[in-house]
Specification:
Elements lengths: L2 H9 L4 H8 L5 H14 L7 H26 L1 H7 L14 H19 L2 H18 L9 H25 L5 H20 L5 H7 L4 H5 L1 H25 L3 H23 L1 H31 L4
Length: about 300
């Protein structure tokens, strides 16, 4: 037993380091990026509402996303005890029912912070937290089916943080064009989530997790992921063009063409190449998110 696990077992409480590991800071980047896109799309300078911006960053990353990680690890603790025994809960560094308690406490903190940020941020937080629990907890366990699980994560990581950032800056329901972009990029994120499933096909089959690579096979799932990522971006480019933003639309098209080149390479060996494509193609995808956010900012504020 390592020192932190021994400390936890003696005191009956987890150490701060184990709690931080449970909340997985590396996963916070995606929702915080989407939240930043929401701020950019609002057209309101962040300096005008810097306190709300900072609270929103904490809400999107450490709180709501952190909650989702704690919930997931608690309800996966028996599987992790076999496959990844060094994780905080199965290793004993988060003893007893502290994993569940942390998820509950973080849920409450998330709702409290969201309430300070306004009605629409609070509503978005409720939806995001509900999806986070439904993703991992019985009876829903959305993660057991790639169609539902990927949709839940895509919405929580892209659409809801984007909506929250725009709502906080506007102090009201965001412009319909902002909401449209958030929805489109959430749909595309369904494909990004599929990319994460190629590394665990055999394990998912044994554990009854019906990821899309398990349901469709690696080849078909790879093509589907690419289509799901590409189509929303085509729609975004067309919308930006119709909104009088041709240069931003062109930038989205250029980014998509680069992605299509990578996609052709990826689908030939999806299981081996998914991690590399996830790093390169996804980076281009989220760059397009920010471009489209800036494109719509002046349209949404009536400056177009």
């Amino acid at each position: 037993m390592d020192h932190t696990a021994l400390t936890a077992s003696l005191t009956g409480r987890p150490t701060p380091g184990a709690v931080l590991e449970l909340l997985k800071p590396i996963t916070w980047f995606a929702p915080m990026w989407a939240y930043g896109c929401g701020i950019a799309s609002s057209g309101v300078p962040a300096s005008e509402r810097w306190a709300e911006v900072l609270l929103g960053v904490i809400l999107a990353g450490p709180l709501v996303c952190g909650t989702s990680q704690a919930v997931n690890d608690w309800f996966d603790r028996h599987v992790d005890a076999i496959n990844e025994p060094n994780r905080p809960i199965p290793s004993g560094r988060i003893p007893g029912r502290w994993g569940l308690h942390i998820a509950q406490i973080w849920t409450g903190l998330s709702l409290a912070v969201a309430a300070v940020l306004g009605l629409w941020a609070f509503i978005a937080a409720i939806i995001g937290l509900a999806l986070a629990w439904a993703y991992s907890a019985p009876p829903f366990r959305l993660k057991l089916n790639g169609w539902w699980g990927n949709a839940a994560v895509g919405g929580c990581y892209e659409g809801l943080p984007w909506f929250t950032g725009a709502a906080i800056m506007a102090g009201a329901l965001p412009d319909w064009r902002i909401i449209t972009l958030a929805v489109l990029y959430s749909i595309g994120a369904h494909g990004i989530m599929t990319l994460n499933d190629f590394k665990s096909i055999e394990g998912d089959q044994r554990m009854g997790v019906r990821s899309l690579p398990v349901q469709l096979g690696a080849a078909k799932a790879a093509y589907l992921a690419c289509v799901v990522m590409a189509v929303p971006q085509i729609v975004v480019a067309g919308l930006l063009l119709s909104w009088g933003r041709p240069w931003h639309a062109l930038a989205i098209v250029v980014s998509l063409l680069a992605q299509l080149g990578l996609m052709r390479w990826f689908v030939k060996k999806p299981r081996e190449r998914a991690p590399i494509y996830n790093a390169t193609g996804t980076t281009l995808y989220v760059t397009g998110m920010l471009i489209s956010a800036y494109a719509v900012s002046s349209v949404a504020t009536g400056a177009a």
